[in-house]
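RECORD TYPE: protein structure
NAME: TrbC/VIRB2 family protein
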Amino acid sequence: MSGTPHSAFFRRRHVRIALRLTLSAAAVTATLLALPTAASADPGVIVLAANDLPTVVANLRRWLMGILAAVATLFAVLAGVYWATAGGDPSQVEKAKSALRNALVGYGLAVLAPVLLTVVRGIVGG
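PREDICTED:
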């Protein structure tokens, strides 16, 4: 049953749906990051940096952890989709295992992001 055109159709369909969801989430994230934020400075004052270095590093850490966790979650979902639609195909199962490994690496990097940014802050003298 796993080799029927019917199962291949649904496998491709699930992958296309997951890809569309991924692209939609990326587009929303890019749009939100591109939108200007309201500033409360006087019109005649030029502000070069709104925050000090520790605040910038803390904000960067929060964003980095969120983005890494989101990408890792995406890979975990893709691994589930690949595994569910594998139908016993060894290459699809291997693709699912690879996506799951990538998800675990992403979660590991999200957990290590505060440590890495603390090292960076120590290097630049913040």
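COMMENT: Residues 90-124 form the longest helix (35 residues).
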